[in-house]
Design a protein that fits this description.
Elements lengths: L2 H20 L6 H13 L12 H9 L2 H10 L15 H13 L3
Helix pairs in contact: 2-5, 4-5
Length: 105
Amino acid sequence: MNFKRLIKLATPVVGAVALMVSMPASADGKKIYKKACKMCHGSGMMGAPKFGDKAAWVDRLAKGTDTLNDHAINGFGKMKPKGGKKSLSDEDVIAAVAYMVEAVK
């Protein structure tokens, strides 16, 4: 095999590997919850539904995941956008919401 053909064949593979390395790791909902959500959702501060309290989450769950994610990202009631942690990505917040929802299913 000549060098030019080898380069031509290897380029897509190298590109795919580089893309995979540069992609952010998926958010860890539990870690994000502990970092950004636990203070209020762990204690019920300012009316936040407590983590794991099924009764407190029933009406919220009925509104659907999209609404929960929207409220968590953009703020709702006394809750600031992203729980006041502006450095979180939307994906981080969505992962934390999924973690909290899973705890009440």
